[in-house]
Amino acid sequence: MAHLPSEPEFEQAYKELAFTLESSSLFEKYPEYRKALGIVSIPERIIQFRVVWEDDKGNLQVNRGYRVQFNSALGPYKGGLRFHPTVNLSILKFLGFEQIFKNALTGLNMGGGKGGADFDPKGKSDNEIRRFCDAFMRRLCQHIGAETDVPAGDIGVGGREVAYMFGTYRKERNKWEGVLTGKGLAWGGSLIRPEATGYGLVYYVGHMIKYAGKGDWKGKRVAISGSGNVAQYAALKCIELGATVVSLSDSKGCLVAPEGQHFTSEHINEIAEIKLARRPLTEFVNGSASGASSFRYIEGARPWVYVGAVDIALPCATQNEVSRGEAEALVAGGCRFVAEGSNMGCTLEAIEFFEAARSKDQAHEAVWYAPGKASNCGGVAVSGLEMAQNSQRITWTQEEVDDRLKKIMQDAFEDGLNTAKQYVNMKDGELPSLVTGSNIAGFVKVVRAMHDQGDWW
């Protein structure tokens, strides 16, 4: 990649996958897969376009829009749309690359893709957001469809934005079809979709806890970052299962419960209202009606070095939010399980540290890390279930969707676990490498499908 412009996020995602594949026996058993890695790492198609829209003052504004259609061997391209000023091709390629293998781990027929724009929804009126979504979809609709590419929401794209874009697609293409997921329940959406990533993360970690012989969620002390959908619903499910949640965060800082206290479901619901109004977490401390004034908001910081002793860490905010130093602080505080609710939530150095700690020694108990492509695949799994419901023009009950989600997360855990046992040499008493096992499991599914379809030989 030396002849290409620097794409640090994508290069990190590629190196993490390549390193784990090289560290296993996969290429010894299947040397031809090394060639397949070079092919699968290049997107099938990248679409870039300008988005011209009008603000409330009548001024024309312009943003860059993107869709990276990375791989369709297993099904239509599937992955979110992100509206955030930091969006660029490197970030979208990293997210789309991860999405290929994440979608493969769900066992559903979905390829991998990602898209978005460098548009900042913060501070924009509803009318400005509607006009931007309309302009964005007028360009994107030429390249997507229910059997081609099915985007979803992501950072900056929630139910409101999906609704605006679906309306534009329907009018522009003269079609009502399951082209976007995360839709409203009255017009093709699925129950459990908003909760799915957070719930699925907790279901996945539950299997880790059980396999490691540490009981269940009851009594576990949990540090969570982020305060969006993933963090909120992960926190609510942890609380429901008897765990204690002690932190959340936003882009400006972190919120930590004082010693002896923790977040309640009422706190989480109040934070959800604050986030829905696009207001900062500081309002929870300064104006809370639920007795949260004693909670500590630490500006410009992430929670990991401030939470003290925790059993479980769930990074649910954004990429590279756990550094090597923060990983060391978590383990020193007794953390035994780390699972990503965000995509590529840990730096390579942090992952290497966690992976080196999978065996119990005199300094600490064994530490077990789960990569986002496995532990947070519940969101796209329920998006896939929404696609299935749309195809059949039916709606499943909440219990049906939740049961399917639980089974998908169990299968994703067991797939990574068993693949690690097959391809990675382990020391006595060492926990299997879920990052290597999940990477191999997803990679093999995709490249075998590509081989069968003549994409490489």
UniProtKB/TrEMBL annotation:
One of its GO terms (molecular function) is nucleotide binding. The active site is at K114 (proton donor). Pfam families: ELFV_dehydrog, ELFV_dehydrog_N. InterPro entries: Aminoacid_DH-like_N_sf, Glu/Leu/Phe/Val/Trp_DH, Glu/Leu/Phe/Val/Trp_DH_C, Glu/Leu/Phe/Val/Trp_DH_dimer, Glu/Leu/Phe/Val_DH_AS, Glu_DH, Glu_Leu_Phe_Val_DH, NAD(P)-bd_dom_sf. The record marks D154 as: Important for catalysis. Substrate binds at K78, Q99, K102, G153, S383. It catalyses: L-glutamate + NADP(+) + H2O = 2-oxoglutarate + NH4(+) + NADPH + H(+). Gene3D superfamilies: Glutamate Dehydrogenase, chain A, domain 3, Leucine Dehydrogenase, chain A, domain 1, NAD(P)-binding Rossmann-like Domain. GO terms for biological process: glutamate biosynthetic process. Residues 190-454 form the Glutamate/phenylalanine/leucine/valine/L-tryptophan dehydrogenase C-terminal domain. Belongs to the Glu/Leu/Phe/Val dehydrogenases family. PANTHER family: NADP-SPECIFIC GLUTAMATE DEHYDROGENASE 1-RELATED. This is Glutamate dehydrogenase. It comes from Monosporascus ibericus.
